[in-house]
Amino acid sequence: MSDNISEQEGFILNAAIGFLSVLLFVLIVALLFRVVYPRIQIDRVEEDPILISEIIQLEVLNGCGVPGLATKFTSNLRKYGFDVVESGNFDNFDMTETFIISRNGNLDNAERVARALGIPKERIIIEKSTDFYLDATLVIGSDYQSLNID
């Protein structure tokens, strides 16, 4: 009976040695692959200064009457990191040019939106009001296809 126990112990010992041998082999192969094929180092791209720093809260209004346009711009502006808090229709649909209304008097915020969309600075209107909690309002005109939007 003591021979059976020693055979079982020998089997367990051989199984453990076999398992550890396989594990050692896998680790050596992994090390060789790491040496031969090092990890690719990806350089970080500098963030666009237009899109960093403080969050800009926007209102997006459709001023040309194309259905769903404010929603499309809202989605794209959110991809740029802008916080679009409202969207809808402007007072009328006669706007031929897209423009931005600076609501809080911080012209830098309106200019960042303008640069992101490719709107000239000349189309920024300052309308400072303490009643507005927004930084800017974007009014989309019929020239929307010429803007930087997907």
3D architecture notes:
The chain is of the alpha/beta class and 150 residues long. It folds into two domains: 42 residues; 90 residues, Alpha-Beta Plaits (2-Layer Sandwich), CATH 3.30.70. The chain is 38% helix and 17% strand. The protein is built from three helices and five strands; from the N terminus they run αβαββαββ. A five-stranded mixed beta sheet has the order 2-1-5-3-4, with helices on one face. The longest helix is centred in the N-terminal third of the chain and has 35 residues. About 7% of the residues have low confidence.
For the structure shown, list the relevant keywords.
150 residues; alpha/beta; Alpha-Beta Plaits; 5-stranded mixed β-sheet; 3 helices; 38% helix
Largest sheet report:
5 strands, mixed
H/E element sequence: HEHEEHEE
- Tell me roughly what share of residues is in helical segments: 25-40%
- For the biggest β-sheet, the strand order reads 2-1-5-3-4
Distance between the termini: 80 Å
**Computed CA radius of gyration, to the nearest angstrom:** 31 Å
Q: Structural class, please?
A: alpha/beta
Number of helices: 3
Mean pLDDT: 84
CATH topology (fold) name of the largest domain: Alpha-Beta Plaits
Count of spatially separate domains: 2
